[in-house]
Amino acid sequence: MSVDNKKTGSTRPAFEEKLDQVLAHHAGIADQLADSAELPSTELVRLSKEYSDLSDVVERIGEWKEATAEISELATMIADAGEDDDLRKMAEGEFEALKQRIPTLEDAIKLSLLPRDEADERNAILEVRAGTGGDEAALFAGDLFRMYQRYAELRGWKFEVMETSETDRGGYKDATASISGNGVFSRLKFESGVHRVQRVPQTETQGRIHTSAATVAVLPEAEEVDVDINEKELRIDVFRASGPGGQSVNTTDSAVRITHLPTGIVVSQQDEKSQHKNRAKAMKILRARLYDHMRQLRDDERAADRKSQVGTGDRSERIRTYNYPQGRVTDHRIGLTLHKLDRIIVGEGLDEVIETLIAEDQASRLAALK
Question: How far is 351 from 347, CA to CA, in rounded Å?
Answer without folding.
Answer: 8
